[in-house]
Every structure is written in structure tokens, then in C-alpha cells.
Amino acid sequence: MEHGHTKYPIGHIIGFLLSLAMTILAAIVALRSGLPKPAIMSIIGVLAFMQAGMQLFMFMHIKESDNSAVQIGNIIYSIIIALTIVLGSIWVMHN
Amino acid sequence: MIWTCPIINTKGWEENRLKLDEFFVTGEPIIYVTEAGIALAMIGILFYLTYFKKWKWLWNNWLTTVDHKKIGVMYILVAVLMLFRGGVDALMMRAQLTAPNLKLLDANHYDGIFTTHGTIMILFMAMPFLMGLINIAVPLQIGARDVAYPMLNAFSFWTFAAGCALFNISFIIGGSPTAGWTSYFPLAGTEFSPGVGNNYYAVALQIAGIGTLITGINFLVTILKMRTKGMTMMKMPMFVWSVLIMCIIIIFAFPVLTVALALMTFDRLAGTHFFTMAGGGMPMLWSNLFWIWGHPEVYIVLLPSLGIYSEIISTFAKKRLFGYKSMVFSMLAIALFSYFTWVHHFFTMGNTAAVNSFFSISTMLIAIPTGVKLFNWIFTIHKGKVKLTSAMLWSLAFIPNFLIGGVTGVMLAMAAADYQYHNSYFLIAHFHYTLIPGVAFACFAGLHYWYPKMFGHMLNEKLGKITFWFWMVGFNVCFLPQFVLGLKGMTRRMYTYQEGLGWDNLNMVSTVGGVLMGIGFLVLVWNIAYSIRHGERDVTGDPWDGRTLEWATPTPIPPYNFAVAPVAEEIDAYWNMKQKKTPLYKKVDVKPIHMPNNTGMPFVAAVGFGLGGFGLVFSWWWLAIVGLIIVLGCLAWRSFDPDKGHHIPVKEILETEEAARGEVV
Amino acid sequence: MLKIKKLPWKRLSLVLLSALFLLSGCDTSNIAVLNPQGPVAQKQYDLIVYSFWLMMIILVVVMGLFIFMVFKYREKRQAADYVPPDHHGNKWLEIIWTAIPIVIIIAVAIPTVKANYALEEVPKGYEDEKPLVINVTSADWKWIFSYPDENIETVNYVNIPAGRPVKFQLTSAGTMASFWVPELGGQKYTMPNHSMELILLADKPGSYQGRNANFNGEGFAHMDFEVLSQTQADFEKWVKEVKGSAPKLTKKDYNKILKTGLVGRMTYTGTHLDWVETPHQHNVMNKKEANTKEHDMEGMNMDDMDMSDHQH
Amino acid sequence: MSDHLDTSLPLEYQSEQSRLNIFGFWIFLGAEIALFATLFATYFVLSGMTAGGPSQLDLFKEKDVMIETILLLVSSFTCGLAIFSMRNHNKNAMLAWFIITLLLGAGFIYFELHEFIDYVHEGATMQTSAFLSGFFVLLGTHGAHVTLGILWGILLIIQVVRNGLNPVTSRKFFIISLYWHFLDVVWIFIFTFVYLGGLIQ
């Protein structure tokens, strides 16, 4: 792991601008684009997951510590469980 | 003028507030007798503590301990008490059902009893008993000094204890919940369960759940990060593997319970519409959320038990566990599948054939890894040298009984057939055939197996065998007839039935079985009391010629467990050391050991949880807020003085080692 | 040889008990679930018996292997200095006892899925028959049966014509109950604000015991009902009798019935369906006629329609 | 646990207890993901159940939601800068950025409460319908987490002012930064699936 960053936090600034851009893009697609509903939902859904991934790697230093493998594995498994709970509940409750 | 908070209007809370005369439950002779019994016991304990000036000893050694071994003993003590209460509940139910139209218990009392029986047996007996055995054995088996977060370990126990106490006072103060341990809506809503009973269910389980989640995280980190040198993942004892996988399931299942119970609390106390009939609520959503946690929960209690069986069968067959890798992968497969099968608990709730078919198949798939494990145990016994101690008897009896549970499980997994089995006594027999041999037998086996490490003396083997046979026969006599009763149309949770339906003599036989199990429990209690004085002392620290590292420690186990962390080269590390006669450690390697300090914070936080929970149950908001402040205060206080711990000097270590082992080279 | 004193108590008790289990299983006449009286119950009965014997094979194989191992390798039967071999595992054995269970699971899964789908439709051989529709409403501790075509209503008993499929539209006016007539077929839940369809059929006339299988409070144990199947002629005669003699159902009567408590048998002309909306079909929505029903139901009743048109 | 410090690592990873705590917190975040997933599942299942009350379209206002989202995004950025300064052992810069982060968080809470009070005045409380129950509990749980984070942050600021920047206080700040970024991720999903999803028509 790198010790003592360079003087200027480039990573953070890029990360911030990226997440701002993704948020605004999602808002525009959702509110102004007039695309069919499922298309909008999938676009802003993908944007949300991309932004989440970006936060994990750029801001939360997930890759850093020596047990990063387990940390990333844990987050991936929890996403799988989260999707099971959400999609499972919707599928079961609607028929 | 009632203060109406802008976000949550308090209309719902007003009707819910109880008048004080409904505070104490009245009108049941059995409850008066129990109240008197408990009062006497409490007075007896208080008298003993004050008379023998034991308060200081209690505070220093037990209420503020962070030692995983003492916490384990406390967990098991609570579990045995709960086994007693859950068992008495079961016997009362069996008594009421012995013959048609009996009037021992009325409907409401019977409903309260089966609800507390179910909840206590799974959440307040099985979980703590296993957590107790895990706390005692796991750190020792991986050659560690303690768990990753000793203070959080104590915090988990005391939070669990607060939830357990809160749930148990419900039948005296306010009335116990009467909607079953699954507490389905709309029955569990304020419209059909107006009393505070179900508030107890929602709040007590929430508090106990917090403790379990923290234990899950604690032991996951302990197992992953604190194994001794040389013990790679594939060289860990099988029990440690089962606990690791249990932690993974806990971490992802208990948050679902936390949310479900929180939504139930909001529905009952704040008038929201999650599961209500009015306002667009969906009662089926509760069943869905409950079982998303519920099914992984039964694997949370099953997996450590399978780990205990692996240890005991391997030790008493004097043979290495057969198929170590396939045992690990089958447990991983069970853990993964356990998240995709929850709908088999409500096939009959009008799901489409596609949903029912998917979950039928996913439920059947779990039988495959379970089958693999059964064959691996059988082949561990193959060419072994089977020593029939009590612990081994319990573990061996697990295989045939759990097999009946397993095959009936596959029969129940067929959605079309489940329309006939659902909620019948066939289902009752099935889940008792999986839970009692699957979990209760493992608790008894583990108790016998690790008893010398806990208390320095062994349980009497003859009495142990008597207990075992009472349970083995009683269990089958009680639950085999229930398969037939289920097919005859008898449903669960019926407080009585008419004659002429052909259910009479099978219920009679079932009650006889229940009584036999009750007698078995009494013999176990007598065994524990008897062995305190007459139990065979454990001098060597390794009474069963064990294979894993916990047997490398002297008895009584010093607070630091290992003077020098042992090096594990092979699976069954201690067995390997004994074969090669490698010395445990050299005197020169002994260094001062850093140990955490005792802390009173977890106990105080538990008092806060108890008060706050009690306030929530009775909608006394000021008490709930006081409780919350105590808990948050404790956390903040802890954050400000991270305990520096203390060091045990080398001289003191050598003294204890020499006292236990004779000279140290 | 086994000394008498050392009789294997465990094995003896188990043999005795399984005998008890099997013995009582033979005369299945008074075992409701194993005494099907209609094609639906028959299909479930076939599935149960098929899976029972398949599982019995597994039980016998594994039990036999287990008993053999425990008895052959007991400490007493071996030399004192016998040291067990250091087996680690056996790849072929692992493959065998993974493959065979997979085959068995497939053998169980295929009939299950077939049966799951079959139970949704009217039993084979009766497709052309016009099914009799009966609305079943469960309330706290009673069953209310409404016959929309015959315009009569009964409480705690239901008469059906034999040999004709009956579509029970299950709903609840309070807690969740479960409508179960073991001899005629499996159960389904009754849920508030939902309506579910359960198709049953009685082959020949007879009286069958029905019961609520899902706990819903104090009176749960008494919440049973009788299903009387009659010949088509008797059934029509019974309907005419009821039309002649039974009192007209008023809203006041209906609300009195709904009040929590136990009531005996009652019979009325007219049904409560005139003033109580039948909630939307639970999962029938995505059947073929979904969209036609969609429009006219749109403004009519309060609670929610099919989720698909609502964004989430 | 041997308490020797591995000085080759950044301050917050140096003691073994710190490494364990940070690793344990990541596992806890896994559990939090499961918790919020269940709340989202409840909201999605009940989102159509307005029971005659106001629906998403009647309530949500684009302007308010964008302000709240920007506030939380910027606070996530300043929190990153605080950790960056901490890694450079610049205590004052870290404290400054961290206080800004908490202030932005407080601003977010202010706007969110303001939004809730508007809904209540329009007659949309959590007792009105299942949709609103689901909405208030999902948003409320996130809001409660943010509030708890702010209180926790204040405690940590006091500790750093008293004990200075050492392996113990730096690990605590690193953990609260993980917590803060995680809450921002949860808000991204709320913003996307609850608000944008609700406003699409």
C-alpha cells in the first residue's frame, strides 16, 4: 500500500466529479428524456451500481488492506444476497 | 393535549397504552404456582449471594468477564434453564392433547404456551447452547488466546440475556404472545392480538438478534484472522469450519429479521400499514420476510451441530474424518442453497406453479450435500475403533433419526404433496426429527464432550447413558405417531380435538414419549449435580485422547489458553503432535501475554436494553428513551477509554504452567 | 455372538416403533390423506406414496450401512492394539454418493413439477364439465360459503354435486385461514383483500370433514365444517328446498356472523356478494383474460390492481 | 494481540487491533447491505399500495431531492479529503474537512426533515398508506444512520482534539469514513430507485 499520498488528492477529485456527473446524468435521463419506463429504470439502475462501485474503490480504499480479497468477496456476496432478497420478494409477492 | 409529533401521529399509540390493572396476568392457577416458584428461587439466590458475601466475586468473575470460556459457560447455563422452561411448556401441551376434549388448559393459555415453546426452544435454547459450546471450543481449537473483540463478545451475551429475560417475563407481566413462533399477520396485528403479548415477541427477539449478529461478525473475524501459525484454512478442525459458515449465514440472515421485527413493531405501536389488512398492507409480506430469515436460521443452528458431530465421531472412532474437503464443500453448498428455499414454508399461499416448482427443486437440492455428509460420517466409522461414550452415543443416534427427518423433508419439498402436509402433524414430526436429533442431540453430545474442559470433571458416563436411552426411546415414541396423526388430518396448534376422529390413542402414545424425554432431562440435571462431587477429575487435560488443539491445554484452562501459540502442521493438529511427541513449547519462548481488562459496560448496556425494551412493550415512551440513552451512553463511554488491557508477566505464566503440567523444559 | 444382556436396545426400540408406524399405515381407510375421494386428492396421494417408497429405499440402505458399520467396528470387537488406518477420503465414493442422490432428486422433482402445474387446472376428463363456483369467506372461527349462481349462502357446511369440478374462490374477512378437505385435496390459504382459486372434485356422494389448517386465534380448533357431496339430482333438490325455506340474508345478519366467535350451521337465501366486493384474483391476473378485466375493474375497487402497471 | 506497530503501513492500519477492527467493520457493512436490501424490498413491494392516499407523483419535488443528493455527494468528497489529510499526518486539515463533512450531513438532515414535515402537512403520514409506511421507514432508517454518524463524529473530534492523531484515533476516523461513504452509497440507491423511479411517468 502506498504510504503518504502525493501532495494533491487527484483520485478524490476525479471520483467526486465522476459521481456528480453520474447523478446528474441519471436525473436527466429519468426526468427529461421521455424514454420508455423500463429503459430508464435499467439505465439509472446501472448508473447507481457504477457509482456505488466507484465509491467502494476510490473513496473507501477497499483494495488496500491485506485482507482486501475477503472484503471484496464479502461485498460481492452481500450484493448477491441483496438481489436475492429484493428480486425474490418481488417475484414471490406478485404471484 | 397529547403531543403529536409531526412525522408520526400518536393516535395509534393512545389506544395501545395499557391500564395498570391489566399489567399482571391473573386467573391461571398454573401461573400463580410458577410465579411463587420463581420468587422463591430468586430469594434463595439473593440470600446465598449476600450470606456467603459472593457479590464481589460475582461482579469480578462473571458479570464483567470478557473471557470467552466464562461467557461460554454463562450461555450454556441460560440454555439449560430455557430447555427446562421450553420442556415444561411441551409437557403441558402434550398433557392437554393426551385425550380428546380435555380441560387442563383453555385455548388462550394453550396458544401462549405453544408460542413460547417454539420461540424459546429455537432462539433461547438452541442458539445460546451452541454459542456457549462455540465460545468455549473455537478459540482453543484455532490456538488463539481469545476472540477478535472480547468486549463485543461479552456485549453479545448480555444483550442476548436481556432479550431472553424480557421474553420470559411475558407470561407473568402483560401476557405472553399467542400468535405462534412464526407470528403471522393479520393475527399478530393489534386488531387480532390486542394485548402486549406480541410486543414482547417483537422487542425481545430484536434485542436478542442484535447479540447474535455481533457474535456472527466476531467469530468470522476470529476464525479468519487469528488462527495459530501453520493452520491454513484447509487444516482447521471441522467444527471451526462449520462455525465459520454459520457466521456467514448469520451475517446475511439476521438483518432481515431485524427489519421484519422493526416493521412489526411499527405496525403494532405506530399504526403503520406494512402487514395490516387496511391501508394497502400485505400480510403475506410478513411471512415472506420472516422466512427469508427463518430458513437460514434453521441452518444456523444445524451447521455447528454437524461440526460437533464431526469432531466427536472422529475422536471416538479413533480415525481422521473421512473426506475433509467434501465435508467443507457440502457445508458451503448448504449455506448457499439455504438462501433460495424459503418459500417452501408457504407453498399454499397462492403462489403460481412456477414459483412453487422453483422452490420445490431448490429445497430438494439441499438434501444432496446433507446426504454426502451422512455418508462421510458413516465412512469415518468404517474400520474405526468405536468407543461408545455418552457423547458418541448422542452423535451416532443423530444419523438414523436425522435421516428420517431428512427423507420426510424431501417428501414435504414436493409442493403438490405439501398441500396435504402443510401445518399438519406430519410437518410437526418432520421438523422435530430434524431439530431434536440435529441440534438438541449435538448440544447434549457437546456438553458431555467439553464438560471436562469447562468444569474440570467429567459427567458420569452411566447416568449419561440412561439420559441418552430415555431420550432416544422417548423421542421416537413421541414423534413417530405424529407422522400418522398428520396424515389423519390433525393440524398443529390445536388445543383440543373431538373423539371419533381416530386420533386418541396415537396422541396418548405421543404423550408417553414426551414424558420419557422429560425424565431423561431430569436424569441429566441429576447427573450435573451428582458429578460436581463424584465426577471423575480430569487430570491430564485430554480425557478422550482428543485430536484437536483444545485438548493441548491443561485443565482448568489458564486465562491465556496457550503460554506460547502452538504450531499446527496437519489436520487434527494435537493428534499429530502426540504422534510425533513434539513438545508443546519451550520455556525460552514464553513472553508476557497481553490480556484485555474486564469491563462492566456490556452488563450496564444490557440493563439499558431491558428497560428500554420493557418501555417499548408497554408503550411507555419515556422508559424506552431512558433505555436508549443508557445503551448509547455505554457505547460512547467505551469509545472514550479503549481498554489498554494488562500484561501477564512471564513468572506468573510459568507458575501456572508448572502447577498444571509439572516442570516445563 | 451378542450376549442377551447386551441386547441392542436401540435397534429393538426402533424396530418396534417402525412396526407401529407401518402397522397403523396399512388400513388407510380412516387415514384421511391416504383415502382420496376425488381426482385431486388421488393425484396428491399418488405423489405421496411414490415419494414414500423412494425415500424408504434410501432409509433402508443408509440405515443398514450405518448399523453394519457401528456394529462391525465396535471397540470390543477389535484387538486392544488395533490402530485404525489413516484414511483421508476416497474420490470415487464421493462421486457415487453425490451422483445417486442427484438421480433420486431428479426422479422426485419431475413428478412434482408436473403435479404442481396440473393442480392449477380442472382435473383431466372433466374439462368440458361446467365447474360450480362457490365463494368461501373465512372469518374468525367460521366458514361462509356463497353460491353466486344458485344465490344461496350457508355457514359452516357446504353441499356440492358429486362428479362435477367445484371452483372454491377463497378469501378472508379477517385473519388468514387455510381451507383444507383432506379427502378431496390439498389446502390453500384464505387471505384478506385477495381471492385464490382451489379446484376440488368429489367422485361419489359422501360426507367429508373439512378444517382450517392455519392457526388464527382462540377458536381455531373448532373452525371445521362438513362437505356433503350429493348426486346432481339431490343437490338441485337441496337448493330448491333452501330457496323455499331459508331466510333472506341481510347486511345486519352478515355483520353479526362476522363478529368474532363461534356460530353453528346457518342457511340463507341471497349472498353477501351483493354488497361486498370480491377482491381481485391473486394470481389469476396473469391468466389469458387479464387485460380485459383490467379496464372495467380500474376505477371500481379500492385496493390495488396488478403491480405491473405501477412503476417500482 | 501483540501491540507492536507496523510503521510501514498508514497510521490507521499500524496496530493489529486496528486491522481487525477495520476488517470487522467491512463485514458489518455486508450485514448493513442485507438490512437496507430488505427495506428496499419492502418499499418496492408496497410502492403501489397508496390506498387512495397521495402517490409518489403527488409528493416528490425534484428540487428538494437534488439539493439533498448534492449535499450528501459533497460531504462524501470532503470526507475523502479528510482521510487524505489524515494520511499526510495533517491533523488540522483533517479536522477542518471532517467538520465540513458533518455540517453537510446536518444540512442533508435538515432538508430531509423539512421534506418530511411538508408531506405530513399535506396529510401524508406513515399511517396513511403502506407505500408511505415503506417510504418513511426506508428514508427514516437512512436518516437515523446519518444522525447517528454525526453524533459519533462529534465524539471522535473530541477524542482527536484531546489525544491527537495516533494509531487508535486514526483507525476510528477511517472507520467512520467507511460508514459515511456507505451511507452515501445507500442514498444513491434511494435517490435512483425511490425518487427517480417515483417521478417517472
UniProtKB/TrEMBL annotation, chain A:
It holds the Pfam family COX4_pro. GO terms for cellular component: cytochrome o ubiquinol oxidase complex; plasma membrane. GO terms for biological process: aerobic electron transport chain; ATP synthesis coupled electron transport; electron transport coupled proton transport. It is found in: Cell membrane. Keywords: Cell membrane, Membrane, Oxidoreductase, Transmembrane, Transmembrane helix. The chain crosses the membrane at residues 12-33, 39-60, 72-93. It is a multi-pass membrane protein. InterPro entries: Cyt_c_oxidase_su4_prok, Cytochrome_c_oxidase_bac_sub4, QoxD. One of its GO terms (molecular function) is cytochrome bo3 ubiquinol oxidase activity. It comes from the Bacteria. Its main location: membrane. Its EC number is 1.10.3.-. It catalyses: 2 a quinol + O2 = 2 a quinone + 2 H2O. Catalyzes quinol oxidation with the concomitant reduction of oxygen to water. NCBIfam families: QoxD. Belongs to the cytochrome c oxidase bacterial subunit 4 family. This is Quinol oxidase subunit 4. It comes from Heyndrickxia camelliae.
From TrEMBL, chain D:
One of its GO terms (cellular component) is plasma membrane. This is Quinol oxidase subunit 3. Gene3D superfamilies: Cytochrome c oxidase, subunit III, four-helix bundle (1.20.120.80). Belongs to the cytochrome c oxidase subunit 3 family. GO terms for biological process: aerobic electron transport chain; ATP synthesis coupled electron transport. Keywords: Cell membrane, Membrane, Oxidoreductase, Transmembrane, Transmembrane helix. The lineage of its organism: Bacteria, Bacillati, Bacillota, Bacilli, Bacillales. It holds the Pfam family COX3. Residues 23-199 form the Heme-copper oxidase subunit III family profile domain. Its main location: membrane. Its EC number is 1.10.3.-. The chain crosses the membrane at residues 20-45, 65-86, 93-111, 131-161, 173-196. Signal peptide: none annotated. One of its GO terms (molecular function) is cytochrome-c oxidase activity. CDD domains: Ubiquinol_oxidase_III. It is an enzyme of class 1 (oxidoreductase). SUPFAM superfamilies: Cytochrome c oxidase subunit III-like. The gene is qoxC. It is a multi-pass membrane protein.
